[in-house]
Amino acid sequence: MAAERLVADDDFEDRVRASFERQPAMTTIGAELTRVTPGMVEIEMAFSDRLTQQHGFLHAGVISTAMDSACGYAAYTLMPDNAAVLTIEFKVNLLAPGKGERFLFRGAVTKPGRTIIVADGQAYAFGADGEAKLIATMTGTMMTVIGRDGILG
Amino acid sequence: MAAERLVADDDFEDRVRASFERQPAMTTIGAELTRVTPGMVEIEMAFSDRLTQQHGFLHAGVISTAMDSACGYAAYTLMPDNAAVLTIEFKVNLLAPGKGERFLFRGAVTKPGRTIIVADGQAYAFGADGEAKLIATMTGTMMTVIGRDGILG
Amino acid sequence: MAAERLVADDDFEDRVRASFERQPAMTTIGAELTRVTPGMVEIEMAFSDRLTQQHGFLHAGVISTAMDSACGYAAYTLMPDNAAVLTIEFKVNLLAPGKGERFLFRGAVTKPGRTIIVADGQAYAFGADGEAKLIATMTGTMMTVIGRDGILG
Amino acid sequence: MAAERLVADDDFEDRVRASFERQPAMTTIGAELTRVTPGMVEIEMAFSDRLTQQHGFLHAGVISTAMDSACGYAAYTLMPDNAAVLTIEFKVNLLAPGKGERFLFRGAVTKPGRTIIVADGQAYAFGADGEAKLIATMTGTMMTVIGRDGILG
């Protein structure tokens, strides 16, 4: 995808970073926005005991939270500056336990569109050896919303 | 579904409650396990600013976290006492913004099975008027795991 | 859902039936439109060897084809008369083998909306004893399209 | 993925082709099995009026039928010779109308596994100019079944 040409607003990175700062859920799970390019966003976080399920692995919902933000912001990079992004739906496949020292979540636009944008995401776990392991994938459908209730970002 | 007859272990409620206690992610999002019946589980939580996205609504991932636990434990009520439950995949549709004072997440088994269990979930928001609003639905595929690495619950 | 009040056009049944007639895929799989009510549609078909997979059961894709039409037309019952319905995405869970003499596919609107409509579907198989068995479920996201390329229905 | 090493049976291509031949649904939609490699399968078909929806495009369910077979057989290439493949669930995103002269459906294993295999699929349309257009994506969860009711393939 020639994503560069799809960017509707050159300040996409500033907009994404400002919106991410306004997501308290990202602070709560200790997630950082590490990469913002046209149509692709990466979020990283450290493992934390506070975010685990009963077997001591990262909870599937926490993995989904970070991937949803990554996919949503990937879509948002391509939107005009007066738009807001909403998640309509997503599907997650959990491929391996969420164990590791650090995690990287990537969202990338598969199909841009004026109203509907489809993005795919991957979640990777990094162990002590630094090797990346694919632990989950997501497909999400995002919607561009303009002029609704002053909702922005 | 005649779920009563499907229960493989009469102590299902104790097992579910013990496992829920071992999910730190539930404490982190302030979720409580309020109902455990054969094939159905309910989880409730209060709204918290710490769990919101950029528009001030509950993050879709937090909604998914609670629904995944509800669906997973609904499946777990039907499993034998030496089993553990794993989420293979789920899909979430976000139907309305996650705004409200309290939230209820229900998971119920649609299709029991020895290895694969399919559960459906609903998320409801309650405003100041106390009326329930359906804000999200989930379909999840859960797996019964027995004898893997001492994983239980 | 008070679907009655949601109907935007009283001729919804005629519109749905006319559109169904223009779906050759329904003829190819031998499907009939048996029920059209506000927000809910049923489609029925007989088992046919031509539509099976390698184990002699109805192919998962054929089940999906009929459920997608049922969910799409359920959404379409609530749309204005100048609209067309498009499927954005759907998820199917196959719960039991597609074996039986006849099949019924029901689609019903879970969340109406101006642009996005979410519908849920069920597929039932009927054996010689006439008992219904749930063999699959669907959640689909449908879109109302108005004024695109003369697309209608 | 080092899929070569994952092959449990060197006759995987023969097994896949034999099973495909036993899928009458593939004949009904005019689909051919054009490529079978370890962990990846391609299916092709010509456009046919018989398989369209109300706007004259390939029905989303027909696209799903071919992608489900591609994903299922991709999983099947990695299974032992006494196994059968079952689809547990799949999700499809429709990205563009199903219009074209020919279609190619690719399924590839994202996550191999002893019991559960996750595969991702793409559907491409080819117009008169021969250029490929991505029209749909799938994520499917497949299951290895051994020794059930003489089910094979």
From TrEMBL, chains A, B, C, D:
<keyword id="KW-0378">Hydrolase</keyword>
<dbReference type="InterPro" id="IPR003736">
    <property type="entry name" value="PAAI_dom"/>
</dbReference>
<feature type="domain" description="Thioesterase">
    <location>
        <begin position="55"/>
        <end position="124"/>
    </location>
</feature>
<protein>
    <recommendedName>
        <fullName>Medium/long-chain acyl-CoA thioesterase YigI</fullName>
        <ecNumber>3.1.2.20</ecNumber>
    </recommendedName>
</protein>
<comment type="similarity">
    <text>Belongs to the YigI thioesterase family.</text>
</comment>
<dbReference type="Pfam" id="PF03061">
    <property type="entry name" value="4HBT"/>
</dbReference>
<dbReference type="InterPro" id="IPR006683">
    <property type="entry name" value="Thioestr_dom"/>
</dbReference>
<dbReference type="GO" id="GO:0047617">
    <property type="term" value="F:fatty acyl-CoA hydrolase activity"/>
</dbReference>
<dbReference type="InterPro" id="IPR029069">
    <property type="entry name" value="HotDog_dom_sf"/>
</dbReference>
